[in-house]
Amino acid sequence: MNTHSTCLILIGAWLAISGKAHGEPLGKLFFSPAERLQIDRERRAAPRTASPPRLDGFITRSNGPPTLFLDGKAVPASPRQIHPQDASVSVTTADGQTHRLQVGNPSSTARP
């Protein structure tokens, strides 16, 4: 190993040690202290309710499971989710709420 390589290694080690001793902890690195405090408050706040997806349509089959089209994506469903009497479906969102959706109707009825 030559002198130049040794010198670069020593400088790198010194920078690494001195940076840890004087710097702020690397938590939320690219935010100011006030922004970090706000982020922590939002994380501790009550969880937000998820908005229900948009029901674009559904397909029922005589010899297979139904398919829902939620927000433009095909999603497999169970026959229990389909309500043919009023052409609606039941969908449970990430927050645990069950929504009864109709095609083209932006509103829904939610049940816990």
Short account of what is shown:
This protein has 112 residues and is α+β, with helices and mostly antiparallel strands. The chain has helices spanning 3-22, 33-44, and strands at 55-59, 67-70, 73-76, 82-83, 88-92, 98-102, 109-111. The longest helix has 20 residues, at 3-22.
| Total domains | 2
> What distance lies between the first and last C-alpha atoms, to the nearest angstrom?
69 Å
Largest sheet: spatial strand order: 4-5-6-7
Low-confidence stretches: none
Q: Could you tell me the strand content as a percent range? A: 25-35%
Secondary structure class reads alpha+beta
Number of helices: 2
Q: Total strand count, please?
A: 7
Rg value: 27 Å
Q: Estimate the helix proportion, in percent.
A: 25-40%
Shape: elongated
Largest sheet data? 4 strands, antiparallel
What's the average pLDDT? 80
